[in-house]
Amino acid sequence: MAEIINLNQFRKARDKADKQARAAENRVVFGRPKKVKTLAEKKAAIESDRLEGHRLKSPDEE
């Protein structure tokens, strides 16, 4: 015979697990301090400028 389960408890447990997974993802995405974020943005801008400086032709000339 099959085991009897309470569907309401099953639904609540599933929703709780989903919320915990979403919270873990958000901690990774939004959990960086402002100093680290600005440093990463500055490094990306410097790298973009360096890469743009190595172009032989600008995109408008093509």
Automatic annotation (TrEMBL):
Pfam families: DUF4169. InterPro entries: DUF4169. This is DUF4169 domain-containing protein. It comes from Methylobacterium thuringiense.
